[in-house]
Amino acid sequence: MAEQKQQDTASALKDIISHAKEYGFVFPSSEIYDGLQAVYDYGQNGVELKNNLKTLWWKAMTMLNDNVVGIDASIFMHPLTWKASGHVDSFNDPMIDNKDSKKRYRADQLLEARAEQYEAEGTPEKGKALLQEMAKFLDAGELDGIRQLIIDENIKCPISGTLNWTEVRQFNLMFSTQVGAVSEDASLIYLRPETAQGIFVNFLNVQKSGRMKIPFGIAQIGKAFRNEIVARNFIFRMREFEQMEMQFFVRPGTEMEWYNNWKETRLKFHKAIGLPAENLKFHDHEKLAHYANAAVDIEYKFPFGFKEMEGIHSRTDFDLGAHQTLSKKKQQYFDPELDENGKPYGNYVPFVVETSVGADRLFLAILCNAYTNETTGEGENLKERTFLKFHPAVAPIKAAVLPLVKKDGLAEKAQDIFHSLKRSFNTTYDDGGAIGKRYTRQDLIGTPFCIAVDYQTMEDETVTIRHRDSMEQERVHISELREKIGNAVSMERVFEQL
Ligand code: GAP
């Protein structure tokens, strides 16, 4: 029986980070210059995995829902967009510096860590009271109060060990730059901190050009940028990342029904792509943002604990309403359907239910879940192996064709098979080294199927398929490969569960 080791600690994340780098999934950005903090690049296997996740999300949204369509808006938007959305005035995090170590922290995170410590020590009521006090000060904009809480709680800088703190300042997370060639004429412009606003400002364009009827949704995948004060946990919190967002426009008063609906639909998606139910949970927001009347996170159990992977928000008519006011252009929908009194609902600003998942966080969850260390056998036969147990539909490479030896026509035969399969799904060819080593190479990048070409193949046109997780082998005819493997790796297997 294979035994799989469980690692829940920070060391598990370290192992995953080095595995991701060594096997071409994620590299630190511009590494030859010692990297750029909180920015990462996806390698040859990482980009395939990420593209599969994005395609699954995109198709689950736009292909499986006949009332959801997609767009691709620009990263740059008119600066008033961010005034209307509230980002210019309130997309801030409170920061504090330690004067001795010169290190910068998020003041709220220092207090949250203390609250977690109280919980771990068995005095959660103290933690709760602390968080309430913090929320009170933040709401009132009393940053001195936040600083005082840090001092009263005796929270020292982990580097210098001192309480020598600066005052707390609000720090806007948006990156800004300038458009225009002549500096006097140039105007301030932002890199979008969320993709959602590109959807809101196109609400009427899509509704009219697509003759969409409420309820309907607009989906988008794209880059977003936030100047995070403290970026940590690998690709969990980055300064440049990718979001997959969908705004669902509904009749006012029906938003809670749709909110509950989308909560369940999105949870089902995560399970269907292979994340285990016990590692997923809902976390309701106690304190709601000014624009929301309900909000929940889908959390995944990362090696550093249960943390937000996706947010589902009932955003009321806040965004469309704010754009209507600032642009002075009506953002209304004419609803011809009749209410219970037989009157048309008429014109209104729709309410919105949003689903928003970070492509990178989903990638990290899938990678953490797939990373497996397994021990088989006993005594002298004890063997350890590391492999990535991806759902076949998300695996970067679906099949590897491996001739047992290069001579006697086996390599040519294997090449023929490789060239015929690669038109149907991502296939690779490898003839270097012992076959066991080649299986291991594929295990390490999570290839679900290895096809071995041996002497018997030359006689009867059969090959073995070696299955990644069980390591079992089965003999099949070459003519069966495309259908058998194609079926197992097809995204349809995921969609069937939605
Ligand atoms: N439009 C709503 C919105 O942007 P959010 O909770 O700020 O809401 C949504 O972000 C999702 O985007 C998060 O659940 C997370 O998956 C992802 N995300 C946010 N900030 C991120 C960061 N700095 N790095 C990676 N992913 C991030």
TrEMBL record:
Function noted in UniProt: Catalyzes the attachment of glycine to tRNA(Gly).
An example Gene Ontology CC term for this record: microvesicle
InterPro entries: aa-tRNA-synt_IIb (IPR002314), aa-tRNA-synth_II (IPR006195), aa-tRNA-synth_II/BPL/LPL (IPR045864), Anticodon-bd (IPR004154), Anticodon-bd_dom_sf (IPR036621), Gly-tRNA_synthase/POLG2 (IPR027031), Gly_tRNA_ligase_bac (IPR022961), GlyRS-like_core (IPR033731)
Organism of this sequence: Pseudarcicella hirudinis
Family: Belongs to the class-II aminoacyl-tRNA synthetase family.
Keywords on record: Aminoacyl-tRNA synthetase, ATP-binding, Cytoplasm, Ligase, Nucleotide-binding, Protein biosynthesis
Disulfide bond recorded as keyword: no
Any one Gene Ontology molecular-function term assigned to this protein's record: bis(5'-nucleosyl)-tetraphosphatase (asymmetrical) activity
Protein name in UniProt: Glycine--tRNA ligase
Catalyses which reaction(s): tRNA(Gly) + glycine + ATP = glycyl-tRNA(Gly) + AMP + diphosphate
Residues that, per the record, bind substrate: 106, 194, 241-245, 354-358
PROSITE patterns: AA_TRNA_LIGASE_II
Domain of life from the UniProt record: Bacteria
Coiled coil: none
One Pfam short name: tRNA-synt_2b
The enzyme's E.C. designation: 6.1.1.14
CDD domains: GlyRS-like_core, GlyRS_anticodon
Keyword hit for Ribonucleoprotein: no
Gene3D superfamilies, per database record: 3.30.40.230, Anticodon-binding domain, Bira Bifunctional Protein, Domain 2
Aminoacyl-transfer RNA synthetases class-II family profile domain mapped to chain residues: 130-392
Quaternary structure and interacting proteins, as annotated: Homodimer.
Binding site for ATP: 226-228, 236-241, 358-361
Record's subcellular location: Cytoplasm
GO aspect biological process, one term: diadenosine tetraphosphate biosynthetic process
